[in-house]
Amino acid sequence: MIRTETDSLGSIEIDAARYWGPQTERARRLFRIGTERFPTGLIRAVGLQKQAAAEANLALGELPRSVAAPIITAAREVAEGKLDAEFPLPVWQTGSGTQTNMNANEVIANRANEMLGQALGSRSPVHPNDHVNRGQSSNDSFPTVMHIAAAEFVDALTLPALRVLHAALARQARAWTGIVKIGRTHMMDAVPMTLGQECGAWARQVELAVVRLEAVRPRLLAVPQGGTAVGTGLNRHPDFDRVFCERLAGLTGLAFTANPDKFEGMGAHDVFVELSGIFSTIAVSLNKIGNDIRLLGSGPRAGIAELVIPEDGLSSSIMPGKTNPTQSEALTMVCAQVIGNHMAITLGAAQSFLQLNVFKPLIIHNVLQSARLLADACESFAVHMVERLVPNQARIAENLARSLMLVTALNPHIGYDHAVQIAKTALAEDVTLKEAAGRLGLVSAEDFDRWVQPARMVGPGDTLAGG
Prior knowledge:
By secondary structure, the chain is mainly α. The chain has helices at 22-30, 40-59, 65-79, 98-115, 128-132, 138-175, 195-220, 240-252, 262-267, 270-296, 326-349, 360-384, 393-402, 411-414, 416-429, 433-440, 445-451; strands at 2-7, 10-15, 180-185, 188-194, 222-223, 257-258, 307-308, 352-353, 356-357, 390-391. The protein has a two-stranded antiparallel sheet. The chain is elongated and about 100 Å long.
């Protein structure tokens, strides 16, 4: 079944069962680009934005209750995901997100009119522009949607997942406090440390990731709604931005505020570059953690093998019984994607000309992908890798005992040059440091045992005090 709708630009045929209207149908036909669609979280944000706008216009006397009430109900249905199928447009559209805003206006107007007993496409008594879009423009509404979606993703997905990973790492760090092992710098043996200290550094990286994300939230919660076309607020009630934010905060539980400078909020999207930069920083941190665990678990017989990588039920297609660090690989692939997304977001934010940024859909598409990927990967890594890691204490002790860098403990007693002689002799003759020291006549067996105690080398002062 087909219906014909007419708007200011002419007539067009639309699937009779669809709630969208002429603007959406034209855009659907015009932008046949790629398969990327906005996630349902952004469509939810669209519904929240339209509901808050209608509630504000009702409270300010800009819409009669007979029109506002069905708009509010229809917008709530959008936010609840009941009309997701009515948003068919790709990410790749006009850079202001106008088509998605018009899509929302048409869907909500048609659904509101249906509730009022009118046929789809009637555009009366609820009009998509005059009523659903009252006091708004795509230029302030779509960036507001961007802020809503990003804030909800960070609060509901990314931050909780980072906290899960931090808790898992912190638990292991505490459990491994007494395990002394060899440290490594430049991928070469270094002085001793504990496995707890090594894991504690990973936990601290994730803790700082949470701190960084929490720090950007106030700027993310400042929305440009109310700027309308260029930032001046033309055609909206003087109090619309304030009341809108009050309603939006009530709907989401997040402390949204009106951006005091609508021109900045619409013409530039620096906050999303900042947010994505934090995501990229987090990705760098997670990449190190994933790679460190992969290296420490390498083997199980011909590698470092100080950690036992958990069995995950997966194996090689040709090598029976092989366990691979699949969670590290998945995590580090996500990190690469997030870092790449940051470049796209940075370039997108650079497409700000005068009073409008024209790469809004690209920016928010990548921001939301990064937020979700980081969340999913962190939780997966915590549950399937970190919580199931087991120290290989026998291998740790073996590697520690064989390390030449324990010689560092002799520096304060015999000097750097003599310590070098001992290390090089031990390596060349394939003997222990203690044996090399005795052969060279530089340190007695008794002094060596007193001075070279790995457990006393994992903190400041102990060895250097000469005890």
